[in-house]
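Format notes (please read before filing issues)

Several people have asked whether sequences and structure tokens are stored in separate files. They are not. Every record keeps both together, in the order shown below: the sequence lines, then the token lines. Line labels are part of the format and must not be stripped during preprocessing.
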Amino acid sequence: MLFIQGGGNGGYEADAKLVASLQNELGKDYEISYPRMPTDATPDFGWLKQIGKEIAKLHDGVILVAHSLGASLLLKYLSENKGSRKVAGIFLISTPFWSGKEEWVQGLKLQENFAESVPKNSRIFFYHCRDDEEVPFDHLASYRQKLPMATFREIESGGHQLGNNLNLIAKDIKDL
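Then the structure lines:
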């Protein structure tokens, strides 16, 4: 399993709590790879290249979990690159749907037809708290419109970090 962190100062450290929660809920039968993502100045911060390298290290049937900026960039990577690995499940937490004409956002936006290019035989799950203070809850509706075949989990409270409790995600992973 691969977990891609969210962005921002301290993103890796903050999301380590999510990884710990997920590992605790899943138990020893699951191994989570949690690489630190780069912080260079490219439009996607160099993450797309790093995500590709990390996925290439894994076996077919991989489970991909990502938070916030990492979730949006994982989806971008998967929709723009033909994967060499079969993906069992994609679990996206507090995922921003980038839009707008600002120059800084252009490297983060998904292609208009991205839904046609996501892995076809993979289950996709989105999780978003109504009280998310970083990524507005209505971003979930944009993904629901583009990816109606995905599963959407609307969570009442827990904020951007889901209260550092990923038991719902662990349950969905175990149910794959």
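For reference, the curators noted about this record: The chain is about 35% helix and 15% strand. The chain has one domain: 2-174.
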